[in-house]
Amino acid sequence: MAVDRDDDTLRLRATLASIAPGTPLRDGLERILRGRTGALIVLGTDRVVESIATGGFDLDVPFTATGLRELAKMDGAIIIDKDVTRILKAAVHLMPDHTIPSDETGTRHRTADRVARQTGFPVISVSQSMQIIAAYVGETRHVLEEAGQILSRANQALATLERYKLRLDEVSSTLSALEIEDLVTVRDVAVVAQRLEMVTRIASEIEDYVLELGTDGRLLSLQLEELVTGVDAERELVIRDYLPSGRRTKSPEQLLERLGALSPTELVDPASAARVLGLGNGEHLDGAVTPRGYRLLAKVPRLPSSVVDRLVEHFGTLQKLLAASIEDLQLVEGVGELRAKSVREGLSRLAESTILERYV
Predict the structure, then answer these.
(1) Model pTM?
(2) How far apart are CA 354 and CA 360, in angstroms?
(3) Could you tell me how far CA 233 lies from the centroid of its own chain?
């Protein structure tokens, strides 16, 4: 059964969530480990699974951790429904296609690997001798670690994220001040885009730790959310502010995807980020660019995105927006006198506070 790599990643995340600490399945797996027995568990069934399964006996009983532990004492595989709510079969002999390549050496692990590749269902192998739990999803093998080890790495990643977020806030504030002064260069935009992408990548890594930690990762999840709130929106606003005009212009989503595809080595080079964003060929990083005003307008309280779009479309650049009077703003559809005053005052306050923050 051919499975796409991206699909493998999504299914691995779903599988890790189902066997994270605090789940009934993880409880059952840990009982098997403590009992020093092995197990082979298939999470799901269909005609393909049935075609390679022989022997054993049908159960179709509610899933319990203790039930899984007792059934693991017998030889053969255990088949559970994909939602981990019922134990369907036990003591099953699995005979996957022997021509499917596998790097595993042990019989149980090799069978788990081949069954996962052939059926597309996740397979969990509990090793009696090595005392490890391994999840096989498509072509991916993931060995579960103790929560303490994962938490240690997660805390290191969180400390790194805090440093990167602090630097991001600095360069983002600098960009805002330069936008107001109309002094933005390609380098300034590229550096902010770089930092946003770096923060996003580290956050994604920590999200995987949170997923694998289950109930043990709740505090980590709260810390992560506090640090990255607003980052995704900021990424899109930066792209929209400096999106090159033209018939062949990529969409913001496409540019963000291209930025995400940069290797770590490429990402630290502002020229690479500039090229991906369509801001020239990366050789003239000191060239001037003009923002449209999305970033600053997004900071004006209670201003709907539809009005922001119309304001940008009407005025074209941030400098024209900053210079617009209340009467000028009222010419835009959906902007009455009260909203025009709100926009005017909001932009003025942002300009004053941003400049003061930069130079005081």
Answers:
(1) 0.84
(2) 10
(3) 14
